[in-house]
Amino acid sequence: MARPKPETFDKQKTVAENRRARFDYHIEDKYEAGIVLQGTEVKALRAGEASIAESYAEVRDGQVWLINANVPEYSHGNRLNHEPKRPRKLLLNEREIAKLTGAVERKGMTLVPLSIYFNGKGRAKMELALAKGRQAQDKREYVKDRDWKRDKARLLREKG
């Protein structure tokens, strides 16, 4: 079964977004990955409680793991509640994992989570990006380009 292009991910409800990632990193490729969750984690995500701001992903033993993502304990959970910052396994194809492993090891790239969302079937998914870190000068150029595009669009709207 062919995977959809990154622009066509079926995002129904976005739970958490890493807005800072697009500024701190230059995004090369995007992947959609499933997340292995426990029952109370799913309920906490459905309630809209999650943070992936300081999280990252790493390839360990041929599997991809989400590290440092915070899914707080479910408020109505009992003694079987989950641990908030536990490592969570991400589900990807073997070919995708091999590609990510090669890029991280050889090119020095980073796996950055961009968002957690529920797709049309109600499954929790993560948008994972293969990215390269930006230096301070690159960030300044990025801000300058973004501001220029905004000003250019404003000028074109006023004139035409």
Automatic annotation (TrEMBL):
Localization in the cell: Cytoplasm
Pfam families: SmpB (PF01668)
SUPFAM superfamilies associated with the record: Small protein B (SmpB)
Keyword NAD applies: no
Keywords tagged on the record: Cytoplasm, RNA-binding
Function: Required for rescue of stalled ribosomes mediated by trans-translation. Binds to transfer-messenger RNA (tmRNA), required for stable association of tmRNA with ribosomes. tmRNA and SmpB together mimic tRNA shape, replacing the anticodon stem-loop with SmpB. tmRNA is encoded by the ssrA gene; the 2 termini fold to resemble tRNA(Ala) and it encodes a 'tag peptide', a short internal open reading frame. During trans-translation Ala-aminoacylated tmRNA acts like a tRNA, entering the A-site of stalled ribosomes, displacing the stalled mRNA.
Family: Belongs to the SmpB family.
NCBIfam families according to UniProt: PRK05422.1, smpB
Protein name: SsrA-binding protein
Protein species of origin: Parerythrobacter lacustris
Lineage start: Bacteria, Pseudomonadati, Pseudomonadota, Alphaproteobacteria, Sphingomonadales
Gene name of this polypeptide: smpB
